Fold each of these.
Amino acid sequence: MIKACIFDLDGVIVDTAKYHFIAWRQLANQLGFDFTKEYNEKLKGISRMDSLNLVLSWGGVQKSEEEKIALATEKNEVYRSYILQMDKREILPGVLPFLEDLRARGIKMAIGSASKNAPTIITQLDLAEYFPVIIDGSKVSRSKPDPEVFLKAASELEVKPKESIVFEDAEAGIEAAISGGFYPVGVGDPKILGEASVVIAGFEGLKLEELSERLLAAVK
Ligand code: BG6
Ligand code: MG
């Protein structure tokens, strides 16, 4: 019996990867190297500092810890200048009707995101009323694939992992959902998210009963 749905934010509710791309590319170019869309793909679900370390390694650039903090702050300021212009028109197709349906059924909802900007994005999208619980990158000590972010969300919602679905677009997030004992639903490409019990292309036309049946069939 499903009692809760926990949503990753970036790539599940909204496409913020395009803004991360602009901000990382600007930083990389400033440091003298290029940053491609392929690199950007690899940063999905990865925390800000871990992302910066990867970006610097791809550019063959070394920086002190102090310099890294300054660079991460700079990248985040560029990123925030974009997300502060977002509004509910950027919510991905089908998400809002699905949240409405969950609310009508009394299903509890939370956000479980690596992003420290998650609360800002939820406010910009006008979705705060759906998510009484937001566990973001500032509330966990271990990043995905560690299940901490989802376990904290379940605990605040007062549900057990085996009563909850996790929606994720990143491999590390699916891994986290599986190791935490949740029902993992991949949002995106089955080739990348094959470990998930069920992979959906998006939320358009999605019905909770059908999804629950597919999940139960997959674990049998
Ligand atoms: C994840 C994104 O949700 O959050 C990553 O997929 C991002 O690309 C990470 O690096 C951290 O985000 P922020 O907003 O704290 O820099
Ligand atoms: Mg994501």
Amino acid sequence: MRIAFLGLGAIGTPMAAHLARRWQLTVYNRTARTAAEFAGRYGADVAATPREAAQEADVVVTCVPTSREVEAMLDGHDGLAAGLRRGSLFLDCTSGDPATSRRIAGRLAGQEVAFADAPVSGGTNGAESGTLTVMVGAEADTFRRALPILSTFGSRIEHMGPVGTGHAMKAINNALLAVNILAVGEGLAALVKAGVAARTAVEVLNASSGRSFVSESLVPERVLTGEWPRTFRLALLEKDVGIARSLLEEVVVPGPMLKLAAELFARVPAELGDEADYMEAVRWIEQQAEVAIRG
Ligand code: NDP
């Protein structure tokens, strides 16, 4: 079986590397040099266009910033839609939005191509170790077909419901992460300013009921060290909070907290730059509060 993978970014690269070890792989990347380097390192064929990538593929996997880029890659003379084979499978691992995915699925159904939204969580570490959680929105039959491919880089593959529900699950997960980052950052900034040592504050928090993934893993690794490694662009988390907010509006759930988080997250990339890492939201809080949370 041949798989085509499009989007060799921070998380797409380790996912595609797992696929290269198990299946015949064709890669496409907007910046062609990245695809050539990947092929040299992991063994894969390189396609010059999305169309070329799809032409020989039984399965097409996309992992780009948003659903907008997925939809744009379908279009045009060199687009995916012009190359997709009847009966093939299209797995979108982008953290995208449900409405666009439903539209893409409808369009592909006309070409007899099955679609699943299959966003992932677990970060670049999880992608490297092949232990991602994959949240799948698809028909039951499409989910069954997708399982062996998604299991190549994921250890928990969950069928959430019809097309769009994978993206809905992912957006809500990341919105909760975003709210937590802001809350933990604000709380720790206050404690340090009140005279508590940052490391002690984090240790006590992590022995108490306010603890979370942010306080247990991300703060010790990235905030206390002041290292701010770049693994997941803050602008991408901002996009996820926006998708979650739209979902709440669509299903008519009042969401004042997510609305505020979306507004705050919209400000941070503008001030820290588009390449800032998501945990640098805490660095932004530090700047506002004129304090450093280190220890
Ligand atoms: P990156 O910004 O690192 O990479 C984006 C990729 O998409 C690159 O390969 C880029 O190509 C390509 N791309 C960008 N714009 C276009 C376009 N217009 N047409 C075609 N290709 C394009 O993002 P990540 O890899 O971090 O994220 C990808 C997706 O995975 C996002 O939806 C993100 O939210 C999600 N995700 C990321 C996680 C992480 O830890 N990084 C964790 C979980 C989900 P080029 O090389 O030319 O720039």
